[in-house]
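Thread: Newbie trying to understand structure tokens

Hi all, I'm a second-year student working on a class project, and my supervisor (Dr. K.) asked me to get a predicted structure for one chain before our next meeting. I've only ever worked with sequences, so writing a 3D structure as a token string is new to me. If someone could post the tokens and maybe explain what I'm looking at, I'd be very grateful. Here's the chain:
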Amino acid sequence: MNLLKSTGTIAGLTMVSRIFGFARDILLARILGAGAAADAWQLAFQLPNIFRRLFAEGAFSAAFVPLFNRKMEEDEQRTAAQNFAIDVLSVFVPILLIFSAIMMLIMPGIIWLIDDFGEGGRTNDFTVSLARIAFPYLALISLTTLFAAILNSLSRFAAAAAAPILLNICLITAMLIAAFLNNGEDPRQTAYFLAIATATAGLLQMLWLYYWARKAGFRFPIRKPKFTPDVKELGILILPAVFGAGIYQISRFIDLFFLGRLPEGSFAFMAFADRLNQLPLGIIGIALGTAILPALSRFIAKDDHGGAQRIQSNAIELGMLLTIPAAIALFVAAGPLVSSFYVGGNFTAEHGQTTSAVVAALVVGLPAYVLVKVLIPGFFARKDTKTPVYTAGISLLINIALNLVLIPIYGIVGVALAGALAAWCNCAMLYTMLHRRGHFHLELSLLGRITKITLSAMGMAAALYFAAPIGEGLYDGSIGERVGSITALVSVGGLVYAALAWMTGAIDRDKITMLTKKKAAEESAQEGQ
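---
Reply by user tm_fold:
Sure, no problem. This is what the structure looks like when written as tokens:
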């Protein structure tokens, strides 16, 4: 597998999705602002997405991919893999339907719980109905996960990486239709349009991945649910992973609960800030984690420990090369970025200042989030889904404790900072466990490279600090002024970082060249033995 090419494919399409996501959030900020309708929509949208992250980015893929790869190795005709996928689907669908039905029935209670036990002013029929309309997205996107896992196991990453674009297109279309019908003066109607668009997007994403899975040669006839030995083995692997990912999602629920205790607009502020944070996280962290899991599984199946060490080291180096400067740049330039993207219409300059502070707190943990995405496959590829449960559980407790300490001091910024610090704790625990078991260790050369990357990024931060005030009057100006000023600021930071990274040797020119070759991961692994 060409690690750089695979990561680049995922990252490139994720970048397109994030661009559409920015367009979506720019419209959301201007049309819904940070009022009651915005909070209700953000809450309704986040509930199915919390469970989506559990299935789509966590437990299911992590448990399914190694077993599916094993079936692929057993039979060149893919018959065993085909039957395994069909058996899993036959069990998966009823579970999803039952779970979704239960959640929609108890939705009033869920909203009441998150809304500071009904004291936050958000427990009403409007919020509940929005959540119920949007929640079917969970079942549809979870089915999409199975098709995506099959394609990723075949190293066909493009279709799955492109699927989220459909969600953003649907939401943008819904807002444009609402604006045409009510001229943006009825935010509640706009929120209803967004909820309907969310469920529609889930259906379109499922059909999209289903088409590409069939094109890859797989068929999915309807079968009566049957717990075969392979499905039972998947269940044994997935339950601890669900619990581990579930701990993370419990953390997200806790964040929602703490936000529910804060003033109106807090859900919107956190969502808009997280969009900027998720740009590098989604492009780099998720892309690397998705790309290396199949390769790690193959190396470990062959008992090639050197290969596994090398591909994980390469992933960390590539991740830090991109993530550290992104985090530092977002921290320094949060104000100009938020003003350019969001301020306008119903989103005031004061809203922008609050969102900027949240961005700065969130990106403190950005490198840790990416490292976690790269380290966890080291456990999952070895069918160890329990250790991440323990580390996630401890980080959850740390997150709760930090929220209780920081929120009275910093308000909504404390919620963001607590999550960032807890992510670093989780990262440290995951690495410690891998190191103690002899599965992975940070080499001195890699540590040296990360140090050079950090120093280069600090030089870039200094340049941004002095360059940002130059365009101060343009960040909330016309569209042309906003685009021009932010483009200039980003260009300055990017050029300074690239020059410093090149001069200091933070960029390993030989490794980048090697990673672009065919079968680069295997070649680099063999050379590292």
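A couple of things are worth pointing out once you decode it. The two ends are 18 Å apart (CA to CA). The longest helix spans residues 266-301. Feel free to ask follow-ups in this thread.
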